[in-house]
Hints:
This protein is α+β, with helices and mostly antiparallel strands. 44% of the residues lie in helices and 13% in strands.
Amino acid sequence: MGKHDHENGVKVEELMRRGGPCLAVCGGKHCTRAGAKQVLRAAQAALDEAGLGETVSVILTKCQDYCDDGPAMTVLPGAYPYVELDRESARQVVLDHVRDGQPVLERLHKRARRKLERRLARAERE
Ligand code: FES
């Protein structure tokens, strides 16, 4: 049993296995304290604004291990972890990434951002 197993919500890995488009908002205690509920509401409103409210689900998860950088929200499919979100940046992630297919590099967790930057640079060289 992991240290966060007492928390409500599903694990983000479970959502990855299920497949399907989804915004996995961390409902762990650190992210909740940092404003996860506002992020969740902003993400849902932005999905509605983009006409995707019926297609993409918003689900609260257990801790995603970005506790020092919360609130965290992972965009699936692809498992793009966004961190340090607020209402405005959550909306931007939905409109730019989910609707327009353009990940918001400056809001991605640094490991994911470096990986994506390397992939983009490689694609440019080819
Ligand atoms: S509480 Fe959200 S990442 Fe740990």
